[in-house]
Every structure is written in structure tokens, then in C-alpha cells.
Design brief:
alpha/beta, about 280 residues, about 40% helix, single chain
Length: about 280
Amino acid sequence: MFRLTLLVLALSLPMLAQWSEGYVWTNGIRIHYWRTGGAPSKPVLVMAHGSSDDGRCWTNLAKEFTDRYDLILFDARGHGLSDPPKAGDLPDAQVEDLAGLIRELKLEKPILMGHSMGSASVAWFAAKYPDVPRAVILEDPALVPNARNVGPRDAQELAKQRATMIQRNNQTVAELVAGCMKNSPKWGQSECELWAPSKQRHHPDTVRATNAARPLMKDLFPQIQAPTLILKADAQGDLRRQNEEVTRILAKGRIVHIEGAGHNVRRENKPQTLAVMNEFLKGL
């Protein structure tokens, strides 16, 4: 299994070899990124991954857009090949990392897409710098607050989270892929193979004592002026209505609940995700 996984990963490298990679220095750290490049006339699409993932986790979705867009898949601080967080990082550190990346690469009116943690950073960025993004795409952002996710974490819980992260750091790619295939069968082999190496590189200093300092989406959305698409995990009843109510705050917003998808929307229903994204992007 391990040899097979390495072979499949090796076969994927020629495609990535056509892309460039590099670093920018911004906000006191190095940020690593992959870039698909292409004609200068292509619009830029910047993709911000979720917690414990890295830029390469966007590969399968990015390949669907390389003919039309110049994509930038960057590693958040503490993820992939970017530098780890620093003691005393402010709650908006990832927002300013994104601002610095855009500035250092001299990107004009980029489209911004984020998943989970990345969606929080993208939404906060779009609210803080409303004139910068051409459009915003949020993959399963937290629209309705969950007390478990915003409250303080005690030392015991933080230590437990770090221990879990170190345990995953030490797993082999083959072990991680096998676990992914077992726990997330909808994803498929290729997604699990891209996901697995990111767990080895996820830095334990990304554990936060609290997320309470991050603004809620309902407070950010009134400040976002760019056209915004929300790709939300499937939901019914009150939760679906609450998601739609928060989305109505956006000046130019649309929400689509992706059928049968959980938090990893694009991995669990890629065909509908692509259809909705293409319709949205075509209308810009």
C-alpha cells in the first residue's frame, strides 16, 4: 500500500511541475505558495485552505480552472511549507498574511476562495479591505455560531489537541491515506493522497486558546461589497433557514446548500460544487 501511494503521488508531480512555487515575506513570516500561472490576461483566483490542510489540498479543484484562471494555492502560517505562528499573533494574523501575499505578488482584483478556516480569513479580509476582491467564494463557513467553537479552551484540552497533531505528524502517508479512505469514503483516493502529507506538516503551534476574538460572519457580511457565493454543507429545517438568513445580510450574496455534502463540500459533491462555481464565475 505504501509503495502504491508513493507511486500515485509521484505520477501527480509532472502536473504540479508545470506550476511554479515560491515564498513571500510578509507580516513577519514566510508564506509559501503554488501558482498555476499562464497568460497574464487570466483573472487571478487565490485559494485559502482549511485548518490542518495546505495549498496542495486544492489541487483537484484547481485543475478544473487552470484553463481560465491563474490560481494561487498558498499555505497558511503553521501549515504546509509556510513558517509557524508566533507567540502573540493577533487574531487577524491570517487576514494580514493574505493581505501581504496579495500585495507582494502585485495581484489586481483577485477572486478569493476559502474553505473552513480559510473562509473565515477570506470573509474577514473582504470586510476589512472591501475594494480589493473582485469576488468571494466561501466553502462551508461557520454562519451560525457554535458555542463549542468560540469559547475558551483550557490547558488540558489544548495539550490533548497538540498531542493528536503530533501523533498525525508521525504517521506515514500510507497510514494517513488509509485512515482518510475509511473515515471519508466520499472523498476518493486522490483527495486522500493530497490530504495526507498536509497532516505531517501541520504545526502544533496552530492550536488556539480561543476563537472568541474572531468576528462572526453576521458582523462581517454587512461590510463585504464583492459578489459572494457560499457553498454550504447540506442542511435542513432551522439550520438551513438560519444559514439563509445570515446570507441575506450580504449586499451581493448567494448561498447554495450542496446536496449530500458535509463540511468538505468540494470533496463530497464535486460535480455540483463545480456547476455552481462555474455559474457564479461566469456571471462576474
